[in-house]
UniProtKB/TrEMBL annotation:
Location of the motif Histidine triad motif: 97-101
Pfam families hit by this protein: HIT
Protein's recorded name: HIT domain-containing protein
PANTHER family (alphabetical): HISTIDINE TRIAD HIT PROTEIN (PTHR23089)
Active site: H99 (tele-amp-histidine intermediate)
Domain of life: Bacteria
Domain HIT: 4-113
UniProt xrefs under InterPro entries: Histidine_triad_CS (IPR019808), Histidine_triad_HIT (IPR001310), HIT-like (IPR011146), HIT-like_sf (IPR036265)
GO molecular function: catalytic activity
Organism whose genome encodes this protein: Clostridium cylindrosporum DSM 605
Taxonomic classification: Bacteria, Bacillati, Bacillota, Clostridia, Eubacteriales
């Protein structure tokens, strides 16, 4: 499958690893939108939030526990952070392998543009 994030998981495309376990990989976004901008992805290819179902939903819960750990490790747990998932065209999804942006290190505006 021609998926850039599957290639990152397989080490075929380089990335700045932040965290890895048997199910999840996390790395710095190549174009950071905040001082901390980490992408957290399942190693398994899931295209988008629309593909989350009863069979794989525990993986999404696990991703949130990983996000908490990374937030603590990077020292943004006290100041706060945002976890973002973009889905589909209007949602601004550009890579069709589900990913969660962990953003922090500055005050984030709401609502997004
Ligand atoms: P989204 O727009 O929600 O699909 O987010 C995709 C994100 O992937 C963007 O923030 C990109 O900057 C990021 N990105 C794309 N290619 C790479 C890469 N090779 N390494 C790290 N981040 C990437
Ligand atoms: Zn993929």
């Amino acid at each position: 499958m021609d998926c850039i994030f599957c290639k990152i998981v397989q080490g075929e495309i380089p990335s700045a690893k932040v965290y890895e376990d048997d199910k999840v990989y996390a790395f710095n976004d190549i174009s950071p939108a905040a001082p901390t901008h980490v992408l957290i992805i399942p190693k398994e290819h899931i295209s988008s939030a629309l593909e989350v179902d009863e069979k794989n939903s525990s993986l999404i819960g696990h991703i949130f526990t990983v996000a908490n750990k990374i937030a603590r490790d990077l020292g943004i747990d006290k100041t706060g952070f945002r976890i973002v998932n973009n889905c589909g065209e209007d949602g601004g999804q550009t890579v069709h392998h589900i990913h969660f942006h962990l953003l922090g290190g500055r005050s984030l505006q709401w609502p997004p543009g």
